Amino acid sequence: MDSNEFQVISITRKELVAAGEQIKLEGELADLCREAGFTTMMFFTKTAWLTAIEVREGESCDTRGRLWDILQLLLLKIRGGAGDTSRIEFDVQVARAGGRNEMVGLVAEIGPADIDDPTSAITIMTPEDE
Questions:
Q1: Among 77, 64, 72, 13, residue whose Cα is nearest residue 41
Q2: Does residue 7 sit within a domain?
Q3: Looking at the domain assignment, is residue 121 inside a domain?
Q4: Which domain covers residue 89, as residue numbers?
Q5: Helix (H, G, I), strand (E, B), or coil: what is residue 125?
Q6: Deepest in the core among 19, 69, 76, 84, taking most CB within 10 A?
Q7: In this structure, is residue 2 part of a structural domain?
Q8: pTM for this structure?
Q9: Is residue 118 part of a domain?
Q10: What is the pLDDT of residues 21-70, one digit of tens each?
Q11: Which residues of 52-79 are buried (b: 16+ CB within 10 A; e: fewer)?
């Protein structure tokens, strides 16, 4: 391939979910999203899930609690936002084992659910995932 050429690779969200690179919130977690006020499908990138949601050994939090906190922070940013709210950056403090807290930067973007599905979906990711 010439140095001035590039290859376009297209991958669907379904493929990303199947590969474990994105997590679709379904069942009880989707219910929690609706309870928080979100009516669109919600996805997390694998990195965002592992960094901000997944509970590690020795931590006293739970997945639902962490998700609820993130949803509430995002909702506050959306309601307080001026202008374009299709992409929102926000930080969440995650309680770690041993009483430590870690500040995690997240980005939420709204867009189509997939290449062949124009239904709205929110994807929560880390800045490095973009």
A1: 13
A2: no
A3: yes
A4: 13-129
A5: strand
A6: 69
A7: no
A8: 0.88
A9: yes
A10: 999 999 999 999 999 999 999 999 999 999 999 988 888 888 999 999 99
A11: bbeeeeeeeeeeeebbebbbebbeeebe
